[in-house]
């Protein structure tokens, strides 16, 4: 009982807990006497002198117990048990008992213990409630120890300086910007999973669509992309002006790294010059702009927009003057479409959950009439709208029906019931007077005659998912966007082929081929894609049983390792994408899989705090468990191999840097043994060569990944604020200078260079995109 009481007192007095080495156990105020003195006579008076003496003796004994100190001196071992999250997503962070927490979503409280600190769904800045120990401390340079010490969330992170650099190293040396820059070259993906009416053909032959915060103009014939990069967060809607040059895109609300709000707004821009013409609605819209449309019959001088406020406000703008003409409450239910009638500039139509409204714009006021379904069953959702040549309105709904509404009226004049099995997600009136509809559940694209008789139909392959939107191309060509974030090209007569492939859920795994312009991505959608960085198409795709988290090539390039969130990891043949082997290490997330440069070892870093080491034979096709490396007190986040494969280094969720001998699976505790190691890669976010990537106030989870170019001159980082940074390498000055690039709208989860350093690749989290950057 006394020992138990002493442990409790010791913890309160600053002796115990996860940060015992930092808690000030020595000195006048740090020992048990100092702690009791701080509490005053009232505290001491609770116990007699004998008990206090016994307590002090036990404290002294506990102070004398040996503790393991990691090589980087980050503190004694402890398994991190408390994690927190950004407001919109589960997020685990290494925390001490005193550190500030982020908001934790209630639905994730039960499972948050085993989440990665980098698995947030949106950008988040600093802690919700900062405390003193969470503030950034100055970087400390010790010439005697040959080390630099930085602090993350109050925790020291010592890093060894190579001997050749130590004599001349100074924290005051100014870092240099890299001479190279990044230029966005290609965007993989399309946002079809939750957006609609966002695919159009322009007179230039380009199709325009969006993903993340990028509006993409893709010339299918020339296999070239251009990009409008004016937005700073997710684009949610798109409209093309009648002049077929001017485009409007609306975005969601966001937050800067410093916590400042980025209000939702509409940007009107020129698709030829890619210059911004006007910005509408700053401070007017709430949450996001979900619908946008130009007027068509009056020169296109008006623009309508709907936001995602509780009342889903519909507003009409004179966009050239950036002036709001009028607004009104649309619906307290979801609004999916807002559009002007093509021949009547005073008529607007909105539709969505349980409604379709016909709006009249007269004398600076808006009035609405509800669409009357009368004898027809009212659908749960009116999903899409198009207009026929005579001015009739056609809608598709969640019941699979097509309804025709006579021009100028709000009553159904004709119905095609059961046009699709499941919802009608897309409608497109063609130039020849026919109509095309796209189905959700049935994945069918159907061509209808002017009398609404079915002329032709074709089914979209299951792998590409349900139809989201349909756009008319040249002659009989159609472009189809799907809910699985793909774009298809074809016709109802010949079928459809893949044009753009995308991931569907959060994306984390990224690895580049050791000798080819190829790379692999994998994610929560249980898909593994091997891409060509030249053709921008998947060479193969494979579905696996579990969500994937990490990937790594064997040095020969013939075998790929893929880690999943369940503790299982796979070996795949990169030529045939056949399964070579499947293994299980623990039951937690595999955050890193990495072959040694000589191909003799494979390391598997897990969220169970262990690194599993395998010997490798037959060019990566045969592996045997050698052992496991135990010593981290939190989950493994990153791993790098020595160039000669003699050792490897790991980072963990509580900011430890540990070194390992793969032959013995033992920790290397001698600083001199690893100080001058030449590392084959630099993917660890903690280390002397990379610590300059951390900005002032960083909480240790703001940077998700780094990658060094193969020539050793550049370092790219992927952060939680949707930014990609390019530094000079080594990046060993505090708060180093960098070039900064946007494009992702969510946390950037990974980054890598192609084997020849011509291209850098980045993956988005919730935006599910892959961005390919040309190094210039």
UniProtKB/TrEMBL annotation:
Coiled coil: none annotated. The keyword Transmembrane does not apply. Residues 224-490 form the EML-like first beta-propeller domain. It holds the Pfam family Beta-prop_EML_2. GO terms for molecular function: microtubule binding. GO terms for cellular component: microtubule; mitotic spindle. Residues 110-119 have a biased composition (Basic and acidic residues). Keywords: Cytoplasm, Cytoskeleton, Microtubule, Repeat, WD repeat. Residues 13-32, 67-135 are annotated as: Disordered. InterPro entries: Beta-prop_EML-like_2nd, Beta-prop_EML_1st, HELP, Quinoprotein_ADH-like_sf, WD40/YVTN_repeat-like_dom_sf, WD40_repeat_dom_sf, WD40_rpt, WD_repeat_EMAP. Its main location: cytoplasm. Residues 507-775 form the EML-like second beta-propeller domain. GO terms for biological process: microtubule cytoskeleton organization. Belongs to the WD repeat EMAP family. This is EMAP like 2. The gene is EML2.
């Amino acid at each position: 009982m006394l020992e138990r009481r002493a442990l409790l007192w010791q913890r309160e007095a600053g002796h115990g807990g996860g940060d015992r080495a930092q808690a000030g156990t020595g000195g006048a105020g740090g020992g048990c006497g100092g702690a009791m003195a701080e509490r005053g006579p009232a505290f001491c008076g609770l116990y007699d002198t004998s008990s206090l003496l016994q307590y002090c003796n036990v404290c002294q004994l506990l102070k004398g117990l040996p503790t393991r100190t990691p090589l980087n001196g980050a503190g004694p071992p402890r398994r991190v048990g408390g994690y927190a999250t950004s407001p919109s997503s589960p997020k685990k962070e290494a925390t001490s008992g005193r550190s500030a927490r982020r908001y934790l979503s209630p639905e994730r409280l039960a499972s948050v213990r085993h989440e990665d600190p980098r698995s947030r769904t949106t950008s988040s800045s600093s802690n919700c409630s900062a405390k003193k120990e969470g503030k950034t401390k100055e970087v400390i340079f010790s010439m005697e120890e040959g080390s630099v010490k930085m602090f993350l969330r109050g925790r020291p992170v010592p890093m060894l300086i190579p001997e050749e650099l130590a004599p001349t190293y100074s924290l005051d040396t100014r870092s240099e910007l890299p001479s190279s820059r990044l230029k966005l070259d290609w965007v993989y993906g399309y946002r079809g999973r939750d957006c609609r009416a966002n695919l159009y053909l322009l007179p230039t032959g380009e199709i325009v669509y969006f993903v993340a915060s990028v509006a993409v103009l893709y010339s299918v014939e020339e296999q070239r992309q251009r990009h409008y990069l004016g937005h700073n967060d997710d684009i949610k809607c798109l409209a093309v002006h009648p002049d077929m040059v001017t485009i409007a895109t609306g975005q969601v609300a966001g937050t800067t790294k410093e916590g400042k709000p980025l209000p939702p707004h509409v940007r009107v821009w020129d698709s030829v010059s890619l210059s911004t013409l006007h910005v509408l609605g700053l401070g007017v819209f709430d949450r996001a702009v979900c619908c946008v449309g130009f007027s068509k019959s009056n020169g296109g001088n008006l623009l309508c927009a709907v936001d995602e406020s509780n009342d889903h406000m519909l507003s009409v703008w004179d966009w050239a003057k950036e002036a709001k003409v009028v607004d009104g409450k649309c619906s307290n239910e979801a609004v999916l479409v807002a559009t002007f009638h093509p021949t009547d500039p005073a008529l607007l139509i909105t539709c969505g959950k349980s409604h379709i409204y016909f709006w009249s714009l007269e004398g600076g006021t808006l009035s609405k009439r509800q669409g009357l379904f009368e004898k027809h069953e009212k659908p749960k959702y009116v999903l899409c709208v198009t207009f026929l040549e005579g001015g009739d309105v056609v809608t598709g709904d969640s019941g699979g029906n097509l309804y025709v509404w006579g021009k100028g009226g709000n009553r159904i004049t004709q119905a095609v019931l059961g046009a699709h099995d499941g919802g009608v997600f897309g409608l497109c009136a063609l130039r020849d007077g026919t109509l095309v509809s796209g189905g959700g559940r049935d994945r069918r694209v159907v061509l209808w005659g002017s009398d609404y008789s079915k002329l032709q139909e074709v089914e979209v392959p299951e792998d590409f998912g349900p139809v989201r939107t349909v756009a008319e191309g040249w002659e009989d060509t159609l472009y189809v966007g799907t809910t699985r974030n793909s774009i298809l090209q074809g016709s109802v007569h010949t079928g459809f082929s893949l044009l753009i492939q995308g991931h569907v859920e959060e994306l984390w795994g990224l690895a580049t081929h050791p000798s080819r312009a190829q790379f692999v991505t994998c994610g929560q959608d249980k898909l593994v894609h091997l891409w060509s960085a030249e053709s921008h198409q998947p060479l193969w795709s494979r579905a696996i049983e579990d969500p994937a988290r990490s990937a790594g090539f064997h040095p020969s390039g013939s075998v790929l390792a893929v880690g999943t969130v369940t503790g299982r990891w796979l070996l795949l043949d990169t030529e045939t994408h056949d399964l070579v082997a499947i293994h299980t290490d623990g039951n937690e997330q595999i955050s890193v899989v990495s072959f040694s440069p000589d191909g003799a070892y494979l390391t598997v870093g897990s969220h169970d705090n262990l690194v599993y080491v395998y010997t490798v034979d037959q060019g990566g096709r045969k592996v045997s468990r050698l052992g496991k490396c135990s010593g981290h007190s939190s989950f493994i986040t990153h791993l790098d191999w020595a160039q000669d494969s003699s050792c490897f280094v790991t980072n963990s969720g509580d900011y430890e840097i540990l070194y390992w001998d793969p032959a013995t699976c033992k920790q290397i505790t001698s600083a001199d043994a690893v100080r001058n190691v030449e590392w084959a890669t630099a993917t660890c976010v903690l280390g002397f060569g990379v610590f300059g990537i951390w900005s002032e106030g960083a909480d240790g989870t703001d940077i998700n990944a780094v990658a060094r170019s193969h020539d050793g001159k550049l370092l790219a980082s992927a952060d939680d604020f949707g930014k990609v940074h390019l530094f000079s390498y080594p990046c060993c000055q505090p708060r180093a200078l960098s070039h900064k690039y946007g494009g992702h709208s969510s946390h950037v989860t990974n980054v890598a260079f192609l084997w020849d350093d011509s291209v850098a690749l980045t993956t988005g989290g919730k935006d599910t995109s892959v961005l390919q950057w040309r190094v210039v």
